[in-house]
Amino acid sequence: MDFDRIKEKLNILADAAKYDVSCSSSGSKRTNTNKGLGDSSGMGICHSYTEDGRCVSLLKILMTNYCIFDCAYCVTRKSNDIKRAAFKIQEVVDLTINFYRRNYIEGLFLSSGIFKSPDYTMERLIAVAKKLREEENFNGYIHLKSIPGASDELMREAGLYADRLSVNIEVPTISGLKLLAPDKKHEDFTKPMLKVKNEIIQYKSEKKLIRSTPKYAPAGQSTQMIIGATGESDKDIMYSATHYYKNYNMKRVYYSGYVPVAEDIRLPAIGTQVPMLRENRLYQTDWLLRFYGFNVQEILNNNHPNLDIDIDPKLGWALRNLNHFPIDINKADKLMLARVPGIGLKSVHKILNARRFRNLNWEHLKKIGIALNRAKYFILCDSNKWVHRDLDADKIKGMIIQNSAGKFRKEYSTQLELFNSKAV
Amino acid sequence: MNNSKVLIYDGSFNGFLTTIFVAFEEKVTVSQIQKETVCQSGLFSETQTVLTQVDKAKRVWNGIQKKSNSALKNIYFAFQSESQDVELLLYRYICKLFTHETSIAYDYSDGVVLKISQLAKSVGREKHRMEAFVRFQLTKDGIYFANIEPDFDVLPLISKHFRSRYADQYWLIYDVKRKYGIYYDLEKVEIVSLDLFEIHSNSIHKSHKMTANEYDYQDLWNNYFKSTNIKSRINLKLHTQHVPKRYWKYLSEKKQAI
Ligand code: SF4
């Protein structure tokens, strides 16, 4: 192996892949039963963190950054004057195996610019995955990026080797897509998604009948949207995300604050701040929808098309719905407990367990780890002290922001905490 | 009159469980449980040394398991914390466990239960970190070798993870602080105690014991780590929160940083 040449390629092709955030290594069920290499049955491990605080769990690279297309938001676009490079199939296999054996990574995340045609490109991605599984006996995680416009047959084959497949929708609205990626059609994205969804369903039902049916994309599919490149509202984004969760059985939708990479009048200028706090609010909302039993319309609607920047979406919802509160910690059901600002799912679990032993008071709640500075305005417990009876939403909001200024400021700088499932 | 004693054991987990057995069987009022290495007998209490007996330890283990699986895990993890007086705390925890009908493992409003579950949680976090931060280097003998220096004694806890992940390669993970390691020979994992003279932390200093390509791969990884950073989003505070500085010297991606 010519390490100098590989190093150069790796720098170029890792640099170009870094804006894709739809990359995590959890949710697969591929155990090492063949005395081979690797295992991806657990939660996935973050082996390191970049200096911008994102987790590194997969070797995330492009096969090539040559591209025949010219999407405005993308560093790899044809009209961008940058160094180009392409990996050979065997080179990606060697890198993956050698990094994996040293415990640097959980597996591979392979994407690509489009050379020649979508199918030609997709075939090369599949070839890497196939070699890893069949020649190297590799059970680690493989995430392949589906190339928009790739044929159904290739999508079918890709899922037999990959744990996860994804097509990035990138622009949340169809009109935005037309503006920024004129070479691509909306169907180029949705067609492969639909194919993957149907294959997953079919393989699952076959597996029930015939146990030896191979696994098909066991970790499902995901997609990514770029945030803040076009003028869409938070409501547009979250309604679109809900659409993908519902109609394409997405495992995850990722929101990626746009990092300006091009001088283009259609886009925010270079140097414009990455909307990281907004990105964080979207992830919090996504979390509320998937795990807390919220409906998207409760959080975003015509009266309220954008999330508050100064408070988290659950607190925002609670302040707009004070009529539901206060609730009694010792009586309320699980769903309602989860709706209290300052109480995360772990705390809900702890409350439900602990209150079987005794009625809980403020002291207990504090010990359990509830953010009382937020929660106290919304709950009753085993104590006569209920001092917040007459406060209105604005007053509560003011007091919370004032009393937890430090804490909230911390939240501003640690937006990505949510990846670690922090309470909201 | 008062039969209050300091119980002394050999420091092993089985030893500790045997001590619990003895305390219950002989109805000892336990004033302290100490490892023989750190033993400093209290002025007013009598001491008794307990000899480790695996069958007795097993009975305690099974007894706890019958009560609650999560209590069992909490006890094992908290024990590995090596924190001061953890034995006495665990003894109280186990007493509670055996005197209550319902499982107390979730009664977080109780001080002892809360403390044990917090200790177990810290150890769990360290276990998880070590599963992430082990960086193997390939030696000329064909063994993937790694040094770690965890805050708690987590080697026994991570053994299973590495065994099922790296089933087809020889590996050795060595705890620099506690001077022992776990070694996998393609069949089983063994505990090996050795005193290494040379500690291969990160690899600015190259060792002739490693294969020639080893440093090329470390370089590639180090480079990869740099190119994947997005400068306009930099957040060093968050970075060090996730990768505390005390681990940096063993991370190949950090070798230029220290
Ligand atoms: S097709 Fe993909 S790689 Fe090519 S310019 Fe568009 S987004 Fe970038």
Description:
- The complex is a heterodimer of chains A (424) and B (258).
- Chain A is α/β, with parallel strands linked by helices.
- Chain A has helices at residues 3-15, 89-101, 118-134, 152-161, 174-180, 186-209, 234-248, 276-291, 296-299, 313-320, 334-338, 345-354, 362-368, 372-375, 393-403, 405-413; strands spanning 48-49, 55-56, 58-62, 107-111, 141-145, 164-166, 221-227, 252-257, 327-328, 379-380.
- In chain A, the strands form 3 sheets. A 6-stranded parallel sheet of chain A has the order 3-4-5-6-7-8.
- Chain A starts with a helix and ends in an 11-residue tail after the last helix.
- Residues 407-424 of chain A have low confidence and may be disordered.
- The radius of gyration of chain B is 22 Å and the shape is elongated.
- Chain B starts with a strand and ends in a 16-residue tail after the last helix.
- Chain B has a 5-stranded mixed sheet with strand order 4-5-6-7-8, with helices on one face.
- Chain B is α/β, with parallel strands linked by helices and 258 residues long.
- Chain B has helices at 13-25, 54-67, 69-79, 86-99, 111-133, 155-165, 212-227, 236-242, and strands spanning 4-9, 29-35, 46-49, 137-138, 143-148, 170-175, 180-184, 189-192.
- Chains A and B meet through helix 1, strand 1, strand 2, helix 2 and helix 12 of A and helix 5, strand 4, helix 6, helix 7 and helix 8 of B.
- Bound molecules: iron/sulfur cluster.
- Iron/sulfur cluster (SF4) binds at residues 67, 69-71, 74, 76-77, 113-114 of chain A.
